[in-house]
Amino acid sequence: MASAPVIVWFRQDLRLRDQPALAHALATGGPVVPVHLWSPEEEGEWTHGAASRWWLHQSLAGFDAALRGHGSRLVLRAGPALASLRRLIRETGAKTVVWNRRYEPASIARDTAVKQALLDDGIDARSFNGALLHAPNAVANQSGRPFQVFTPFWKHVSALRVREEAPAPPPSLPAPARWPASEPLESFHLKPSIPWDHAFYEHWQPGEVGATAALARFIREAVDGYARERDRPDLRGTSRLSPHLHFGEISPVQIFHAVQRATRGHGAEVFLKEVGWREFAHHLLFHFPHTTTEPLRPEFGRFPWADDATRLRAWQRGRTGYPIVDAGMRELWTTGWMHNRVRMIVASFLVKHLRLPWLEGARWFWDTLVDADLASNTLGWQWSAGCGADAAPYFRVFNPILQGVKFDPHGAYVRTHVPELARMPAEHIHAPWEAPPAVLAAAGVRLGETYPKPCVDHKAARDAALAAFAELKKGG
Predict the structure, then answer these.
(1) Catalytic residue flag (residue 129)
(2) Beta carbons within 10 angstroms of residue 315's beta carbon
(3) Residue 434 catalytic?
(4) Catalytic residue (choose from 165, 229, 277, 294)
(5) Segments making up each domain of the chain, as ranges
(6) Which CATH number fits domain 6-130: 3.40.30.10, 3.30.70.1400, 3.40.50.620, 3.30.1390.10?
(7) Is position 340 annotated as part of the catalytic site?
(8) Please, what is the average pLDDT of the chain?
(9) pLDDT of residue 475
């Protein structure tokens, strides 16, 4: 007797390789019905931002094409997950539904309810860890509690065995005798109605093919020099795998084993430690779900954040008058991505120079990053604001001038993203207001006209931030 169909519920795991849920479905011997459900109303406050929606559209289209190359297809449905899955079960006669877990708070709540309801219906509902090296609930310190400092977390996790990749799918996936109806991808309205995304296509290749190519390029060209060049936004020294990881077009297990096979050098060690920070972020979010909107350190709830819509807008649009900050914010707006070192610089500038709430920055990144990941975004912003786990101390205030000089020494990054400063010499490009009038004139720069003057004085802003943080530390 033929096995009943198995529904594989794909979410942020849009790949065929290292697919634990798909591997289990194939092992049953029954037809496989791949499904993606569009239900943004179930994502809570952090539903997909605009840049993420663009990526998701491309990724879903690419994944459907990949499935069709295996004699299958991706069934698209809109609406609440449980109701959609129940309809599909009735239409296909499926007895099993499988998926890979997500670990955001709203997803955990939704998935827990869905699994229990399906089990109550007599359906074999199973979930797997396909998104992390180790499930967050499987990692704890010696006291059995969650880690809050990265170094002991990574020491502990590094001693654990990373699972082998799930078996690759066969050239042809078993298909049902009759396919259920699928809604058109365009009906999800993921792409922008105003074409602000035109440059995205120049910078990204969403999908499993693009992810595999990005990893291969990184291993071939950059992993050995990663420790030296990862902080240089003017160089292509990072992997740019973050959006592929977020949408599950490649898994951290694949990356871990590929890098280990290629090299065991210092660059690989430092890079895998960055993969570890992603694990740490999910560990924290799993155990402290309130941190998406509230500081992990509760005393920061009384920090005297400023309320200045004009300065917030200047920061968002890359018009602060500090070139390295503006370059980063414009790179984000144009490409949907920002170099990690520059992310730290612009975040420090927002919360310390402007003293604007970290949550404003988190929400802006959420809407504009193609790799907007709730765990990593939360950890990064709370780290910068000093209110989270393993956070930067309050007295660490990045000097945007010195950061620019150190990490963009020739000014190439600034020139790329702030073209009005393209003719500025390197020795003045990171502080154009200090350049002699003749240098500005030769470069065609008129401060306050072609390029803004600094929106705050660095020293005065730093002193005010330190005073506010010190007062908070004293309990004032």
Answers:
(1) no
(2) 25
(3) no
(4) 277
(5) 6-130, 132-158+200-287, 298-474
(6) 3.40.50.620
(7) yes
(8) 96
(9) 67
